[in-house]
Design a protein that fits this description.
The protein has 130 residues and is mainly beta. It contains no helices and eleven strands. A hairpin with a 4-residue loop joins strand 5 and strand 6. The chain is globular.
Amino acid sequence: QVQLQASGPGLVKPSQTLSLTCIISGGSITANYYSWNWIRQPPGKALEWMGVIDYDGNTDYNPALKSRTSIARDTSKNQISLQLVSVAPEDTAVYYCARSSQVTYWSGTYYYERDEYDYWGQGTQVTVSS
């Protein structure tokens, strides 16, 4: 059973850098072919995918957040991290880490791939306020 545990400061002041950690147990972050995501949900809004780091250490980011976001991993500790710089009150949200893999489907006429999320952390609340 894979478990993800996200943790962070809880309260961050505007213009500061938010740093979160997600510790993974029950599975290696280098295992083929899984990816490890950061996703957030502001109050009253939909989930927003922030970025991902895959089993090879390759990263990808939401274009809307790319200039402020950095995702890294520590394979010795089996954990991933998120840094979000220059935070503002709009960055207040519950932040989740989640595992995904690409699953191939048949539409009836063609194959297509879709990311499927199978394990989520419990989420950690981050409030940006002075």
